[in-house]
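Colleagues,

For the teaching module next term, I've prepared a clean inverse folding example: a structure given as tokens, and then the sequence designed for it. I'd like students to try predicting residues themselves before seeing the answer, so please don't circulate the second half yet.
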């Protein structure tokens, strides 16, 4: 149990050592609070689920270690089911970089421990009784008393259940294989997206080839994979575009898991704690990108908890309001509904004439290369109609990723 013993106390218990949990725990510890982080895995770098795609806004705003990031990507190709005549979009700026997530998680865990977070690895969250939380580790059970708990335990959060908060019900499932490249082709780093419901029902299949690795993945609604996710992944991997330089036995990693796409949940806090990351539904409903939202929402969570801890006012957690943040996802939720209705390759093919038009390319460009990231609390209040100041009308419109 990493020295916690059979009983322990802390200001905050964080459950889950994904990027959201690690970031929240580190920020709170740096503010002087006693934080325990419980993670069921022996290492945060094992059993990785995320694709690790970081967008430009995240790279601009957060000090991610450069040696844990792949080469920048400016080019996106959108393919119809027959993989012919893809729609190409090229940005004038570096838009994406794929993280080497094992080393990146290891670095984040080391930063957390160096900041004073008490790391309890191989430790499972069992449940709570009031302010008492029950953990189970290799050295036996621990009873931990904490003032607050943070649920960073994924799309099917047990903490959310125990706090009586909202839980994700709109989920995709995804799988990805990561291949090392045995040779470097002439093609620039490219993000290949395939719109084909036979591979990715209700979503996209993808290949991200950045010249170092190729990330090959599919995702969709679980009940629409007639041959199962694994078989579908095998089929797509055998036919996918953008795999120049890939030698099949060179797969270095396999990932998979549920992806929440219902938007930020409405009730993500109560007087006893709050949710971050996938547990809070902080994932783009359309693109399923979750790394930028998890970092930004974690910063908001740490600020709210710091205030509550310093003032003793549990009511402060009411300002951590998913309903306000959710208003900024209306457009994405509408597009998510439209994409979910593409159930046949013929329907996907029929959408491409529009996508090839000037209007379609402009919309795709704003989705893929937009300047807007996850909303800040102030922006959420504006979107919810609580701030009608003239500054709102003067802002340049931006789009969520």
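(Answer key — instructors only)
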């Amino acid at each position: 149990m990493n020295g916690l013993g059979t009983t322990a106390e802390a200001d905050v218990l964080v459950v889950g050592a994904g990027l959201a949990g690690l970031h929240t725990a580190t920020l709170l510890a740096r503010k002087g609070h006693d934080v325990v982080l419980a993670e069921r895995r022996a290492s945060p770098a094992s059993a990785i689920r995320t694709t690790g795609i970081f967008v430009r806004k995240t790279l601009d705003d957060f000090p991610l270690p450069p040696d844990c990031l792949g080469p920048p990507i400016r080019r996106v190709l959108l393919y119809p089911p027959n993989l012919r005549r893809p729609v190409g979009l090229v940005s004038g700026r570096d838009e994406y970089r794929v993280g080497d997530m094992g080393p990146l998680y290891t670095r984040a865990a080391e930063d957390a421990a160096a900041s004073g977070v008490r790391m309890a690895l191989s430790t499972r969250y069992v449940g709570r009784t009031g302010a008492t939380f029950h953990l189970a580790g290799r050295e036996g059970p621990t009873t931990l008393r904490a003032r607050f708990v943070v649920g960073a335990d994924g799309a099917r959060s047990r903490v959310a259940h125990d706090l009586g908060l909202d839980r994700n019900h709109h989920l995709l499932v995804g799988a990805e294989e990561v291949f090392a490249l045995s040779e470097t082709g002439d093609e620039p780093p490219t993000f290949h997206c395939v719109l084909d419901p036979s591979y990715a029902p209700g979503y996209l299949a993808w290949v991200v080839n950045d010249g170092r690795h190729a990330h090959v993945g599919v995702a969709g609604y679980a009940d629409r994979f007639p041959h199962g996710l694994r078989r579908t992944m095998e089929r797509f991997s055998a036919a996918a575009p953008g795999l120049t330089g890939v030698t099949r036995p060179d797969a270095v990693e396999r990932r998979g898991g549920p992806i929440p796409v219902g938007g930020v949940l409405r009730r993500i806090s109560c007087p006893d704690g709050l949710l971050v990351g996938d547990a809070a539904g902080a994932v783009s409903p359309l693109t399923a990108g979750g790394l930028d939202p998890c970092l930004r929402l974690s910063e908001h969570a740490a600020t709210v908890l710091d205030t509550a801890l310093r003032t003793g006012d549990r009511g402060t957690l009411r300002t951590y309001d998913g309903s306000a943040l959710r208003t900024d996802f209306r457009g994405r939720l509408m597009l998510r509904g439209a994409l979910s209705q593409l159930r046949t390759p013929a329907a996907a093919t029929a959408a491409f004439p529009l996508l090839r038009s000037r209007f379609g390319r402009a919309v795709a460009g704003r989705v893929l290369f937009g300047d807007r990231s996850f909303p800040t609390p102030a922006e959420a209040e504006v979107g919810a109609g609580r701030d009608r100041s003239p500054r709102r009308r003067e802002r340049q419109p931006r789009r969520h990723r």
